[in-house]
Amino acid sequence: MSDEIPSGLKLDFSGSPVVAKFLRSNSFVRGIMGPVGSGKSYACCAEIFRRAVMQKPSPRDGIRYSRFVIVRNSYPMLRTTTLKTWMELLPEHIWGHVRHAPPITHHLKLPPRGDASGIDCEVIFLALDQPKDVRKLLSLELTGAWINEARELPKSIVDGLTHRVGRYPTKADGGPSWHGIIMDTNPCDDDHYWYRLAEKETPRGKFKWEFFNQAGGVLEVKPENVPDDMPEAQGFISQAGRWWKVNEKAENINNLPEGYYVQLLGGKNLDWIRCYAEGKYTYVQEGRPVWSEYDDTTMSADLEPVPNIPINIGLDFGLTPAGVFAQKLPNGRWHILHEVVTFDIGLERFCSVLKSELEMRFPGFEVNMWGDPAGMQRDQIFETTAFDHLKTHGLLARPTATNDFRTRREAVAIPMGRLIDGKPGFMVNRKCQRLRKSLAGGYHFKRVAIGAGQERFKDSPNKNEHSHVGDAVGYCLLGGGEHKRMTVRPRSEYGNSTAKVLDFDVFS
Fold it and tell me: Where are the alpha helices (DSSP H) in 122-277?
């Protein structure tokens, strides 16, 4: 796609077919997803300017009026990435001064020339890391909006913008020729709203949504397709235990430095490569995982309950209660079979869900149920404990010996490190998606900024949507026998005494 703009600015997207389709679309909401370096942000900048140029002139004075907002999650990211890309396309020395004090604003004005109409396009840059900016956003009268890196912003922002666009210019100035929302993002998790709307529940009708996926920058190559003789010299890249090759269909490749994707892969883990280079939906961990021992490739499988072996259930209480169902096999291996993860429901509803899941999935099984000892605290109003509440529903649960975080962590980490009959001592059913994400780094220690080249993490893990199911699996294994293994010394030739405390430093 190539468009000649009246100012002389030429936009050529002939080498990016997905971007070209994205620009040709008039859908009310459009999203484009792709790897880093694919030209997504540049295309969105170009789209705003194109729509300003394509706006019909006002019947009053012949000026093409438009107003757009560009949204990012924080001002540091807005200034260093979004605004930088915008000014590469529309530099200040040609298009006029940028007001850098929040809200950052670039007012593009071109006077009429001959038969060409003038342009008056106001572009407002907003970051949503300050509450006042959210209020500002929801009071604007806009032609359109661009949400940059949409995966980093909640869906409520998208929803709020849907009724702010199309309000400018006014009917007196002819109304907007087009109005809507454009979004770009690197790949996100498969429980993100983007995935749901793009792949499963895309809105249709007059105000339809449309999503575009760019080709990956690299492709994974099967080992059998990798030549034995000097594969690196033939363009194959070995990283994260896999082989890769630069994708010939990658977009914007001619505008990238030579060897861009080859150098990009260096030192990266598999999930990072899948997300940022291959352009696939995946979870990318933040911070330091609580369980760095977990390897989803080797520790997840299709699992079914084994008859005549008790079901152990670990429970985490609170406003987001979670439950994990597991079996400990005779050889010592743990099979995590099922998860129940809830949000914003009370214990009463959670008990009903838990009981229903047990009856449906594990009828006839012996059940051992374990919970956070903090659940023994009495409610200030009703003077009952969480365990009392479970009992009224016929769910007999016991508190674990401790809720010490380090002990819970080790109760899960130690089986992960066991090798039993050639397989890990800890396996998770592939269907337990939330637990797998928690184990893979969703439950993590946040980084602490202490200076360049240094990396430190908080002492306590970050409490988020992944932490509750992570705590539940800890209680499950702790109550199901791992605490006993950790606290009892094996019999030895020196006597039969047992230790009542941990006989090793869990962090040594």
Answer: 131-137, 155-162, 193-199, 260-265, 270-272
